Amino acid sequence: MGNGVKEGPVRLREDAEAVLSSSVSSKRDHRQVLSSLLSGALAGALAKTAVAPLDRTKIIFQVSSKRFSAKEAFRVLYYTYLNEGFLSLWRGNSATMVRVVPYAAIQFSAHEEYKRILGRYYGFRALPPWPRLFAGALAGTTAASLTYPLDLVRARMAVTPKEMYSNIFHVFIRISREEGLKTLYHGFTPTVLGVIPYAGLSFFTYETLKSLHREYSGRRQPYPFERMIFGACAGLIGQSASYPLDVVRRRMQTAGVTGYPRTSIACTLRTIVREEGAVRGLYKGLSMNWVKGPIAVGISFTTFDLMQILLRHLQS
């Protein structure tokens, strides 16, 4: 009887502690997700704005049959500036921000969640190489699936004159009226096929370099310039691996406004190879990507990490 009387309050206290612990854990998880979303959004916005003129020039070459060279790229930049003004170099950047902010927020946040899920599933505190690669690929696929129409709109705005599309909403309206809503997902398959190696290798390379740095330097956190270098290496490897699919994606996205017929991935690939050659056609603009890609990815990863550290300090 006495034991039964004692057990009641003890059990109640244990249940209350369990509920409180679960509530605290849930709040912590929500804060981590919000922190990742905010850090990812800022990281993507800064990175893309920094390289927007180079990105626009790269898209112009990808969707045309012009031969790419550094001299020709500089000429495109210069004539765009002369004919349309300095701010025209950032034309389409508003559409880029509308896409990149949610894309980067979802990608970085999803990556953190996939790392936690895979870590719990396999019982690792730090993910080994294959799950690390898998987490990055899943994060990129998740983000691309949810934000793809915005990527198509950004590509359309980058390769058309101001008179054709006045703003983002105008692009959506004209495409839906003139080409059908299905067009908003035209080029989605090569995008996902390109994102899997790109995001997978980028996150894998960056996380691996940070892990090696921790192991050999004895410091838990790299300096900001070291993070930039790790991010640059990650961008270089990821973009080089997925670049031909990026060219195919841009051709398919802009088929309605550049005069190319709307075809499948295989037909688009064959057309590019037949008309421009395998290396020259599928890797057109890659040298510009080797300049802008490492800068953008370096800024992106560094900003995300530093924002995460700052938010953790503020929360504690």
TrEMBL record:
It is found in: Mitochondrion inner membrane. Solcar repeats lie at residues 31-117, 127-212, 222-310. One of its GO terms (molecular function) is AMP transmembrane transporter activity. Pfam families: Mito_carr (PF00153). Signal peptide: none annotated. It catalyses: dADP(in) + ADP(out) = dADP(out) + ADP(in); adenosine 3',5'-bisphosphate(in) + ADP(out) = adenosine 3',5'-bisphosphate(out) + ADP(in); ADP(in) + ATP(out) = ADP(out) + ATP(in); AMP(in) + ADP(out) = AMP(out) + ADP(in). Keywords: Membrane, Mitochondrion, Mitochondrion inner membrane, Repeat, Transmembrane, Transmembrane helix, Transport. Its main location: mitochondrion. It is a multi-pass membrane protein. GO terms for cellular component: mitochondrial inner membrane. Belongs to the mitochondrial carrier (TC 2.A.29) family. Mitochondrial carrier mediating the transport of coenzyme A (CoA) in mitochondria in exchange for intramitochondrial (deoxy)adenine nucleotides and adenosine 3',5'-diphosphate. This is Mitochondrial coenzyme A transporter SLC25A42. It comes from Saimiri boliviensis boliviensis (Bolivian squirrel monkey). The gene is SLC25A42.
